[in-house]
């Protein structure tokens, strides 16, 4: 019996260490692309062009980031991006949750019809030109609200929140109605607090979409620098860096003819600038994100 117990203990330890090794390898594989981009962004451009940069810069420099932030419009564009992300996320999640609560009520006779209409939009859309003409006729070009109103309700987010609400105990809503609460008060006081996991999940989806989007700025607000977003300005800077590359050189040169940055180095810096803000938000929503995906995604 003792030999069996010792063999079992050794086998258990081997299994644990195998798991640790496998998880460690998965962590390295997952983190390597990010760490490599970070190393390239902090490495001197000429040295980066030689290759061989993996997890640590060979010649440390802040020049790549200075080239990104040397234009003052970047700071104003970052402010616009923060505003559109905050306002767009709050309004979109609130309106989507209200609509999801409405179509989750069995007594609402048009709930299936409205659900089908929104699901259709997941597969078909009017196209770029009709969308542009619609926005122009609504007089939302060169305005901040073009970032908010067109995508204020998303079909996928609507279905996720509705599925979560369908899984809530119906007795809670009935109790609120018996106490004299109206639909809006029931939604605000009862349903919305219980939906915090799925609200956090959808908020992350919407915030990432708002933060990363630059194409609407290009279409509707490209002529108005006061409404330009960070992603659009970073895209223009990367594009200008790529176009500045001469035919016989892979480098962007300064006024003193010294190599300043390369498209690869500035691309790495731009990637970090665009990614870090969302990465700082995610840890605070991770707990709710997991709960919202597991609960809201499986109930119907």
UniProtKB/TrEMBL annotation:
Recorded topology in the membrane: Multi-pass membrane protein
Domain ABC transmembrane type-1: 78-285
UniProt entry keywords in alphabetical sequence: Cell membrane, Membrane, Transmembrane, Transmembrane helix, Transport
Key word NAD present: no
InterPro entries, A to Z: MetI-like, MetI-like_sf
Subcellular location: Cell membrane
Domain of life: Bacteria
Record field: transmembrane: 20-42, 73-101, 113-132, 144-165, 186-208, 266-285
Pfam hit, one: BPD_transp_1
Family recorded in the similarity comment: Belongs to the binding-protein-dependent transport system permease family.
Protein name from the UniProt record: Carbohydrate ABC transporter permease
Species, as recorded: Paenibacillus solisilvae
């Amino acid at each position: 019996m003792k030999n069996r117990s010792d063999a079992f203990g050794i086998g258990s330890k081997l299994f644990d260490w195998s798991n640790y090794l496998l998880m460690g390898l998965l962590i390295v594989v997952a983190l390597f692309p990010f760490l490599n981009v970070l190393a390239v962004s902090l490495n001197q451009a000429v040295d980066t062009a030689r290759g061989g940069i993996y997890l640590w810069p060979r010649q440390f420099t802040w020049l790549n980031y200075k080239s990104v932030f040397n234009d003052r419009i970047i700071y104003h564009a970052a402010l616009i991006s923060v505003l559109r992300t905050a306002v767009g996320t709050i309004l979109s999640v609130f309106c989507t949750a209200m609509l999801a609560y409405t179509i989750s009520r069995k007594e609402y006779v048009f709930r299936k019809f409205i659900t089908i209409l929104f699901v259709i939009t997941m597969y078909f859309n009017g196209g770029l030109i009709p969308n542009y003409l619609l926005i122009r006729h609504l007089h939302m070009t060169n305005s901040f609200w073009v970032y908010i109103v067109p995508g204020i309700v998303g079909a996928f987010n609507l279905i996720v929140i509705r599925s979560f609400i369908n899984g809530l105990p119906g007795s809670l809503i009935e109790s609120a109605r018996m106490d004299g609460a109206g639909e809006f008060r029931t939604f605000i006081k009862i349903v919305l607090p219980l939906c915090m996991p799925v609200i956090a999940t959808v908020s992350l989806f919407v915030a990432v979409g708002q933060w990363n989007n630059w194409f609407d700025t290009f279409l509707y607000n490209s002529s108005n620098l006061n409404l330009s977003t960070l992603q659009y300005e970073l895209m223009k800077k990367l594009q200008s860096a790529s176009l500045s590359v001469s035919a016989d050189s892979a480098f962007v040169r300064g006024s003193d003819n010294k190599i300043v940055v390369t498209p690869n180095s500035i691309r790495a810096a731009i990637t970090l600038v665009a990614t870090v803000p969302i990465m700082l938000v995610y840890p605070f929503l991770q707990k709710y994100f997991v709960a919202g995906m597991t609960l809201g995604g499986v109930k119907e």
